[in-house]
């Protein structure tokens, strides 16, 4: 009984009530009231995203790795940009690979984690988790379509930032399912400081061997610095980890940290990895503010992110 007066026993656990035709937002409310484990974090993540995405004082960063662009989640991320809810995208070079390949006619296929990789290699098929990618529809396709574009760009000037390269590609892509195209249309800058670690980056290198062509990473870094310094408040949806996650939190330390953030990850923190580090750890580095509204959601993005975004969209629609 004494504990009740300490404020620790405020939220009784309630059994979930699942009914036909319930909305995503209603399901999220049930998950929040259910209390324990990941359900509570998912519900909190939706709350944070709703608050950030409906507050015009926020500059909103969307961060994700390339692997999700090989799945149907590409459509959900592109739609988030189309809705005008994203201010800045930070991702990896492989994101450009998958978006270009699929936009230029490459088809990816559902496969299996248990597939025989030796057999796949002999058949000319790459495996990305449970996704099968025909080899000819990845590297060779990107090379054939990208090299003429680089030649055209080089005739105009000799140095481009990664953000400028993404804009030039988006300008030339016509399919609305392309993330690059949508970002170009919505004037959302795309930054990828690790772009060289990709098929796209390899093509930049190969082209530069015979042409006076440079990638101006300093311009990207100056722009990222200006973005965080000019922001009144900053928020982020960080899907996965790696360099895209760290770029967002690293640059936000220059303004004493993110004000709000949602991290969605399957990585574990016990090995000290950046990908597994919870957002609370970033507070000790000044990359997330001490009083930030932050939550780490432990789960796989292709399962949880569509549910979370749909709930946010339903809440935004109710506000109108």
Determine the CATH topology: Deoxyhypusine Synthase
**Main sheet attributes: strand count, strand direction, barrel closure:** 6 strands, parallel
Distance between the termini: 45 Å
**What is the CATH architecture descriptor?**
3-Layer(aba) Sandwich
Rg measurement, Å:
21 Å
Regarding CATH, which class? Alpha Beta
Low-confidence residue ranges:
none
How many domains comprise the coordinates?
A: 1
The helix-and-strand class reads alpha/beta
How would the global form be characterised? globular
Order of helices and strands: HHEHEHEHEEHEHHEHEHEHEHEH
If helices are DSSP runs of H or I spanning 4 or more residues, what is the number of helices? 13
- Average pLDDT across residues? 95
Specify the CATH homologous superfamily: Deoxyhypusine synthase
The helix content is: 40-55%
Number of strands: 11
List keywords for this structure.
single chain, 320 residues, alpha/beta, Deoxyhypusine Synthase, six-stranded parallel beta sheet, three-stranded antiparallel beta sheet, 11 strands, 47% helix
Give a description of the structure.
The chain is α/β, with parallel strands linked by helices and 320 residues long. The protein has one domain: Deoxyhypusine Synthase (3-Layer(aba) Sandwich), CATH 3.40.910.10. Helices cover 47% and strands 17% of the residues. It contains 13 helices and 11 strands. The protein has helices at 24-33, 37-53, 73-82, 93-103, 117-122, 139-156, 162-172, 179-185, 199-208, 217-230, 242-252, 279-283, 301-319, and strands at 58-64, 88-91, 109-110, 125-128, 131-134, 159-160, 190-191, 214-215, 233-239, 258-265, 288-298. The strands form 3 sheets. A 6-stranded parallel beta sheet has the order 7-2-1-9-10-11, with helices on both faces. A 3-stranded antiparallel beta sheet has the order 3-5-4. A two-stranded parallel ribbon has the order 6-8. Helix 12 links the parallel strand 10 and strand 11. Helix 2 packs across helix 13 (301-319), helix 3 (73-82) runs parallel beside helix 8 (179-185) and helix 7 (162-172) crosses helix 8 (179-185). The chain is globular. The model has no long low-confidence stretch (mean pLDDT 95).
